[in-house]
Amino acid sequence: MTEGEAGPIDLEQLYRDEYEGSVHLARLLVGDRHRAEELAQEAFVRVAPAIGGLEDPAPYLRRVLVNLCRDHQRRQRTVRRHPDPPAAPVPGPSLPAEMAEVWQAVQRLPERRRTAIVLRFWADRPTEEIAQVLGCRPATVRSLIHRGLASLEEVLTDDR
After folding, report:
1. Could you tell me if residue 40 is inside a domain?
2. How many structural domains does the chain have?
3. Using the 8-state DSSP alphabet, how is residue 87 labeled?
4. Which residue range is the domain that position 15 belongs to?
């Protein structure tokens, strides 16, 4: 639709015209591209039922998006103030006693280190695949594994 043309804007046209700008706005507000895309899409879903009654839905879309971003930021602050308690150690598979101790130590590692260690040594996955799973570079995977092994060594030698 060109400027000066009167008439209702359908959702598809609004999406084509405003999606990238909406994602950009949300990214500036929440700081995360993935979350920004989700919030922008949610804003379009919420605007869809009202689009027929709006002369210019773009400002309404932005208002909905800003409110969604505020809600997201509010939830994030609450999560940071009240984090979930640490998960109880996962009972290991039936292992010999010396391996059960290792399994429990692995469960106490920070999540990314634990994931990297498990994928490398239990699932026998290569560094590149682990990097894809974790969404990081292979060098980061090597660092996570190195630090995870150092933490395990420290914990397991202190217990003996």
Report:
1. yes
2. 2
3. P
4. 11-81
**What is the C-alpha to C-alpha distance for residues 138 and 127, in angstroms, rounded to an integer?**
6
Q: What is the dihedral of CA 119, 125, 126, 132, to 10 degrees?
A: -60
For residue 110, give the DSSP letter: -
Question: Residue 76 in 3-state DSSP?
Answer: helix
Structure tokens at 127: 């560094």
What stretches of the chain adopt beta strand conformation (E)?
none
**DSSP annotation of 8:** P
Instruction: Give the whole-angstrom CA distance, residue 144 versus residue 135.
Output: 13
The pLDDT profile of the chain, 160 residues, written as one tens digit per residue, is: 444 444 456 889 999 999 999 999 999 888 889 999 999 999 999 999 988 888 889 888 998 999 999 999 999 888 888 877 766 665 555 666 667 777 788 888 888 898 898 888 878 889 998 998 888 999 999 999 999 999 988 888 875 5
Q: Is 10 exposed, middle or buried (0-12, 13-18, 19+ CB in 10 A)?
A: middle
Same domain, 15 and 71: yes
Which phi-psi region, left, alpha or beta, contains residue 7 (left: φ > 0; alpha: ψ -120 to 50)? left
